[in-house]
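Reviewers of the previous submission asked for a worked example of the structure-prediction workflow described in the proposal, so we include one complete record here. The input consisted solely of the amino acid sequence. No template or homolog information was supplied to the procedure at any stage.
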Amino acid sequence: MADVESEQVLDGLRRQARKLVADLAGPVRRVRLRSGESVLEVEWHDPAAPAPRAGTDPVGARIEEPGRQTAPPVDRPAVRSPVVGTFYRAPEPGAMPFVAVGDVVRPGQVVGIVEAMKLMNEVTSGQAGRVVEVLVDDGKPVEYDQPLIALEPVTGQDG
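From that input alone, the workflow returned the following structure tokens.
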């Protein structure tokens, strides 16, 4: 019975991967799927960000400096994206963001959402900390394990 369920999960991941690859901009080099804890990674041929799709309007688009999407300093923990998708800071358009700079978060607290394949995946903090920087703008694409929110560890006196 478990083998049948595993095959169904894998078949679903394969279908979603094919659809994802068809929807992605740029030539995809590798797609990695994992059934346990449901991991999906996409790697492009060019290490730079994928090219914009034909038909997208670059007018008014902000060109980001390469340093904008940098990881937080090594000694600073970060909340990372659990999947490839689109990062949203709030539960719905126009709503208050889950967290803002200066907020103290606790382990397991929802700090954002990553939409992948029309599924909303909650992004939760793995540890307590104070939000010191939001590293990704609302509505921007993110990669698997990309830092989203930089935290400063909280001591017993801070929180």
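The two ends are 47 Å apart (CA to CA). We consider this example representative of the routine output the project will generate in years two and three.
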